[in-house]
Design a protein that fits this description.
The complex is a heterodimer. Chain A has 24 helices and 28 strands. Helix content of chain A is about 30%, strand content about 15%. Chain A is an alpha/beta fold. In chain A, the strands form 7 sheets. Chain A has a 7-stranded mixed beta sheet with strand order 5-4-16-15-14-6-7, covered by helices on one side. Chain A has a 6-stranded mixed beta sheet with strand order 21-23-22-27-20-24. The relative contact order of chain A is 0.14. Chain A folds into 5 domains: about 30 residues; about 120 residues, N-terminal domain of TfIIb; about 160 residues, Rossmann fold (3-Layer(aba) Sandwich); about 180 residues, 3-Layer(aba) Sandwich (Dimethylsulfoxide Reductase, domain 2); about 130 residues, Barwin-like endoglucanases, CATH 2.40.40. Chain B is of the alpha+beta class. Chain B has a single domain, classed as Alpha-Beta Plaits (2-Layer Sandwich), CATH 3.30.70. Chain B is about 25% helix and about 15% strand. In chain B, the strands form 4 sheets. Chain B has a 4-stranded mixed beta sheet. In chain B, strand 4 and strand 5 form a beta hairpin. Chain B is globular and about 75 Å long. Classes of the chains: A alpha/beta, B alpha+beta. Chains A and B meet through strand 3, helix 2, helix 3, helix 7 and helix 8 of A and helix 2, helix 3, strand 2, strand 3 and helix 7 of B. Strand 28 of chain A pairs parallel with strand 11 of chain B.
Amino acid sequence: MPNIDRRDFIKLVGAGGVGVGAGVVLRESIKHPKEHLIPHVLAPEDYSSGVATWYNSVCSMCSAGCGISVRTREGRAKKIEGNPSHAVNQGGLCAVGQAGLQVLYNPDRLTGPLLQSANRGSDGFTQITWEDGLTRVASRLDVLRAAGRGNRIALLTRGVGGHLAELLESFAEGVGTDQLHHYDYDHPHALYAANERFFGKQHLPYYDLSNTRHLLSFGADYLAGWLSPVHHSLGFANSRHGGDNRGYFVQIEPRMSPSGAAADEWVPAKPGTEGILALGLAHHIVASGHYEGEDINEWKDVLSAYTLEKVAEETDVSESVLRRLAESFANASPSLAIGGDGAGNNSNGVDTLVAINALNYLAGNVGEVGGVIFNPDPAGATSHSRQANYQTLAQLAESARAGEIDVLILNDVNPVFTMPLASEFKAALAQIPFIVSLSSFIDETSALADVILPSHTYLESWGDAFPEQGVGFSIGAVSQPVIAPLYNTKATGDIVLDLARRIGKPMRWDSTEDCIKDGWNKIYQESDSNTRTESFESFWTALLKAGVWGKKNHLKTDTSRPNANTIASIGVDAPTFSGDAELYPFVLQPYRSGMHDGRAANLPWIQELPDAMTSVVYGSWVEINPKTAKDLGLTEGDLVDIESVEGAVRAPILVYPAIRPDVIAMPIGQGHTNYGRYASNRGANPLEILSPLVDDNSGNVASNATRVKIVATGKHVEIVKTGGKSRDLGRDIVQTTGGDDHTAQTNSIPITVIPT
Amino acid sequence: MSFLDRITEGWRKNRKPGYYEDFDYHWAMTIDLDQCSGCGACVTACQAENNLPIVGEDAFTKGREIKWLRIEHYWEGEYPDVKLNVIPMMCQHCDSAPCETVCPVSATYHNQDGLNTQIYNRCIGTRSCAVYCPYEVRYFNYNDHTWESPLDQQLNPDVSVREKGVMEKCTFCIQRIRQAKDNAKDDGRRRVRDGEVQPACVQTCPSKAMVFGDRNDPQSQVSQSLNDPRSYKVLDELNTNSSVVYLKKVEAEG
């Protein structure tokens, strides 16, 4: 031990002390900040740590109106599931519905009101207060309203149903405008028009897939996008329960969709000839004595031109196949024919869908279980009466160009993305002096706004829905907030109510919740006083708890017949296409894949969900027939320009085994230029190059009627997709069985829809 | 034999990993390929329930995506007589699992419910199990994954988030099984009722093509579905004894 004198000892102690002190300081400075777990003295309602709370609500990702149950933990939404009690989806939910959480928690959501302080369309948005934002908008509206020029105000909203639609109506009335438009790209205008012409009904009927034994689907991708895909999936599965009565599904479309893949038979008819094919089948049914109605002679007259021989030539489907389809359709009982986007979005779309209705009528499927069943009038508003078709939006653009619109209010709608470039919709918006958007996100349309007053997402706000396709009886559901608002946003209804107050036209409700409750109070008052609950409050509580309301008011079998004029009007012209067939040899079919109309492209789960047919993620592609690819010397990943008369988009080739050689197809949804970090600058948007060819009967653009050519660029990219081999190579992974050994056990699904 | 010896022996007999002779429950799943349309709802539901990462486009190009459940596509024939067969593919929870025998640290083993489970904090990332798995349903974390705020607020608190260097795969939503067992115990029941547990994929399936339940219970829906003459196991010739059973797609004549 070394000698340490008193001085050294003191020095060492001093140095040690400093060292320890420095150590403590250093340790404190690098330590993670303290986190405290503080229990609530008074916990919020329905909040207990570690225990999940479920709220029933309504999915708003598309217009099908599925019921959802949202699982929340510690005040945060964790998982969305289908509400098992809801008759539309019965517990099921599609991928986009599952991904609704990423609308709520999207990192690109707007967190508060914004003012465009630089050039319109630039990134120069600055944060403002709600007071400032609302004042700016209200002052504009007030000046116009007070001067009696309210009609220079236009409202454009995404399709909103239920009592919120009434609130918007009331607001439009208050400011004195009739320019209130709902817009969904996929709204089935042609189907409504055809049903009105043939059945005289404004509402969509219920297509009873569940009980049908033979389905002819004309371009309706009923399992993946058409009207109410989750409900159709239930019906499809129920019809396929094994046993002798297994439903037989036929899909008639030029490009195989997921519904085509699930079908028992895929018939690649020429694009746009679906209606001619339907009338060919109708001709055979009438001519071969399967139809024996009093009006048979009128039918014979109108169908005389559609002999199987002629139809076979026009549709490129052999006579023997047509005869077999007609026979099995007429013999199966019940059978059902449906026509979807593939058939309806042609130049002859409405005529085609009328022909399909006629086919149902002749086969005796109208008003029958397993056929076309008419819904009672919905208990609340649907968006259809205000839905804008292509012509309406084109007119709006025309008024904007003429300087007749001073203020445009947008609500969560993105027409700049879904309207063809040829409509020059974006340029027209630039002519409007003041645009305000209520969107939760910046997208291609709301980027053009002067003021953005961001609204809540559907999981944070009140609303309700009355599904348009329905289930054969009255059904509705309330959408309730499942989580406190994440950001400084307001509910759409509350913004509108506030604006109405500010311009001196207050509505009779204080809040959106008030409006929804008021609407349901009416439904309560109208219900049977013997069976209903004691008070409205108890009804309301029960409604929120169950998440769904229904009334078993099935319509009696409808025996109405089409009159002679209707029958005489039946006929389908050959489809017309834009572009010269020599110069533009392919028909372009833009189809909806997993991203709806593009609104789901900013959800990373959906970007990473492999496409249902091709397994592609994160991008666009062009589907072409293997033979076409070989003829053109193209292979997968070759970058090509798809050129129409109107313009060009660039995407890689994907050789697709199930598409007609004269057709190419592209998915809709990608190609955003300004829609957050996950969607922007990715892929191509085929809607841009569509010709504005309109079916006059529906007023909507015939989106399957644009001819294009393929121009190779010589460049090559790798298409990002999952999965390995696209062929089984004898491993027998997916096994099939034919014949009779498929009877017995089933997972039969109880579908509750049986009309009385 | 002393009392202590008897307890020790009993414990050894029942707790030896990978060699359970009798399962408490024997979870199994059937998937009816005649009803499945390959829509992919199950894929997203699984991602939401089990905190699967958002891997980004680059990871996909390198084959490093993580999808516990995926839809496989097999084309058959040439235009116009062409067909697409789809099949949902996830961990088959084999009772004779090739992956279990190969793990050097027993990070993957068979539990008392007949589940093939993965212990994340025991895994050292040799990836041998993924090589041995004939169904290719094991996914390796080549990176640490992050969720851009506030997407992280969606994460399921009942499921751990895996880190770099760890293998992961379908668990049959074991957290839901645990929850159901807890609920049964709280209610004073000995067993979980049939239908009380639904993995996220089964729950969301729009066409109700999937059935999940206890194979030990002959009355359960899954037991009845297993008896369907259409039932088969994928790559059955490998004798993996899988717990996921498919029902053949029917090819009907028009």
